[in-house]
Structure formats: C-alpha cells, structure tokens
Amino acid sequence: MTSNDNSWLDAVAWDDKGLVPVIAQEKGTGDVLMFAWMNREALAQTAAIGQAVYFSRSRNKLWHKGEESGHFQDVHEIRLDCDNDVVLLTITQHGHTPSIACHTGRHSCFYQRLEAGQWQAATPVLKDPGSIYK
Amino acid sequence: MTSNDNSWLDAVAWDDKGLVPVIAQEKGTGDVLMFAWMNREALAQTAAIGQAVYFSRSRNKLWHKGEESGHFQDVHEIRLDCDNDVVLLTITQHGHTPSIACHTGRHSCFYQRLEAGQWQAATPVLKDPGSIYK
C-alpha cells in the first residue's frame, strides 16, 4: 500500500455520521460472523495492521476487535460494494477453536433463526462470555 | 408461521428511521451477494412470500428484488444477530446463470477489492446492465 495515498479512503461513501457498515466473513467456512461499523480511521488502521479495527457506536471510540477478548481477526481481503458504502472483510477469527466472534460466546452473531414465527437460538454457546471478558 | 403473532417483528431493534440492515448470502456458494435495508413491512413480506423484499432508501418505497430485473431471491433462512439489529438472509439468486445480484451485472455487489492501496474491480460483468433493466 502506498502510505501517502489515501484516495481509496476518500472513495468510500461515508454516511452522515462518518461511518460505513462492515460485514466480517470467515475465510474457509464462508460464515458471516458479525456486522459492525468503521469510521475512516478504523478502516485505515484495519488496512495498515491487517487486523479488524471497528468503531464502537456505543462506546464512541475505535475498537480493535479482540483487545479485551483475545478474539482478534486477521484480515485477508477488504472489499467495497457497488455503491461504495458497504465493506466486506474476509477474516480469520482467532482466540478459540471452533472460532468465536460473538460476545455471547457463539461462533457467529447471527445465531437467531426465524422458525414458525419465532426467533430460535440455532447455534450453541461455545464458551461462557464471563470467561471471555475479564 | 402464525399470521396473527408479530412478536418476532417487534423483537427487531429498528433504527431511528425504522430500518434494519440486511445481508444476503447465497446458499451453496456462501457468497455475500448484497447488502440492503428493510423496514417492518419489507421484513414481514419477505417472510410471508419467501422472496426478498427490501426497502429502497433512494426511492423511499418497498422494493421486491427482481421486480424490474427478473433477478428474484428465494429466501431459505432469516437470521437475526445478537443485538437484534442486523438481518442475514440465506438466498437463491434467480434470473441468470451464474447468478447476478448486482445492478452492475456482476455476481456480487462486493466486486471492488483493495489491492496496493487502490480499489480494483475483481470480478467480471456477466451481463450488460442495459439489457437487465428495460
């Protein structure tokens, strides 16, 4: 990457809060593990260090995924959609086998499945969240 | 589905515009094809007819994907994330082989890949958009 050229960051259509939605998809399985947001600095850091850095809207600050849980995400590929306003990451999820991306201790954040008009937890908790976040 | 029970729709954490972000992932390939938004009515219709109905923010109305292009999406599974504020669909993308979800005539909307500090079109146009939208 050419460090002085930030035109790729300028190309992103940041929303009115300066954010872009980000989908994290696991390399190998293809599973969609989580969805989060990035601001310009988060995306720049993600590209620079090769690990996912999001922007936490609830804490209003950068969030290097794994900084508390140890569940870091190596980023293999960064993609942008046709409208330049959504980012797709291809990642390897570290910290546990099988991998855990969700703060509930599950593999994926998308564990609730609509069945007969109700949301049902479709995948198990792999690790007690209390032991993930000390 | 119990038609009189809409508690599953109440469970969704709609944003301040009454919308929820939606990821469409292709069954079989696992490819993330597109990202869009739904309001309550769009999600209800999607579940009712088993095809993806989004809410177009630019046109400010419901958008039954494929209504103009013929590229309908059959919905196999509807998932909700841990915060109840993002939806993941598992779909079959109809209308062309190989499948086209993007209005540019490409398989996936996520065709721009960051390479050496620049966004590069990483996948080909499968069909002239001019012949998709009459």
TrEMBL record, chains A, B:
Residues 34-111 form the Phosphoribosyl-AMP cyclohydrolase domain. Coiled coil: none annotated. Its cofactor is Mg(2+); Zn(2+). Pathway: Amino-acid biosynthesis; L-histidine biosynthesis; L-histidine from 5-phospho-alpha-D-ribose 1-diphosphate: step 2/9; Amino-acid biosynthesis; L-histidine biosynthesis; L-histidine from 5-phospho-alpha-D-ribose 1-diphosphate: step 3/9. Mg(2+) binds at D81, D83, D85. GO terms for biological process: L-histidine biosynthetic process. It catalyses: 1-(5-phospho-beta-D-ribosyl)-5'-AMP + H2O = 1-(5-phospho-beta-D-ribosyl)-5-[(5-phospho-beta-D-ribosylamino)methylideneamino]imidazole-4-carboxamide; 1-(5-phospho-beta-D-ribosyl)-ATP + H2O = 1-(5-phospho-beta-D-ribosyl)-5'-AMP + diphosphate + H(+). It is found in: Cytoplasm. NCBIfam families: PRK00051.1. This is Phosphoribosyl-AMP cyclohydrolase. It comes from Lampropedia aestuarii.
